[in-house]
Amino acid sequence: MSDVKDPRSALQAIAIFEATKGMAALAGLIGVLDLLHRDVRAVVLTLIGRFGLDPEAHYPSLLLHYADLLPDTDVHMLVMLASAYIALRFIEATGLWLGKAWGEYLGALSGGIYIPFEVMHLIDEPSWMNAFIVTLNAAIVGYLTYALWQRHQPHT
């Protein structure tokens, strides 16, 4: 990968980003599991009130909607899916950190799967944040694809 100035540091930066997503998912899972033993609607209403939000606004009402669904959630399925996602992020981060081709393949594939859904979400709800997410994910997938392509080029 001679065309890229320091491909190892770029891969390690992506690895840190992916590991951070895994940690955030783990923290979210722990938080959701903790909420299962509480009146989730009351907790959400308290948070909405504390931040001075309108419960009828889009995002607070969406949060209330999901708070109402949480008690009926299949906890075992939630834990299995979240654990798989967390494991995938950590495995990918490890492969990228070590500069392994399988880490690049895993990262390009797992990131590329989300792009069509992120683009559809951006079209449905255009915002700077949604545009940033699509752009960042596409840049990461593009870089990993380029790194894989470079691996398969004959070194001269």
Give a concise summary:
The protein is mostly helical and 156 residues long. The chain is built from 6 helices and no strands. The longest helix is centred in the first third of the chain and has 29 residues, at 7-35.
Report the β-strand fraction as a percent range: under 5%
CA radius of gyration: 19 Å
**N-to-C span:** 11 Å
SSE string, helix = H, strand = E? HHHHHH
Number of helices: 6
Number of strands: 0
User: Based on CA inertia axes, which overall geometry fits?
Assistant: elongated
- Secondary-structure-derived class: mainly alpha
- Low-confidence blocks of residues: none
Mean pLDDT: 91
Largest sheet: none
Helix percent reads over 70%
Task: Report on this structure.
- The longest helix has 29 residues, at 7-35.
- The chain is built from six helices and no strands.
- 13% of the residues are buried.
- It is elongated and about 60 Å long.
- The chain has 156 residues and is mainly alpha-helical.
- Helix 1 (7-35) runs antiparallel to helix 4, helix 2 (40-50) runs antiparallel to helix 3 and helix 4 (75-97) crosses helix 5.
- The mean pLDDT is 91.
- The chain has helices at residues 7-35, 40-50, 58-69, 75-97, 101-124, 128-151.
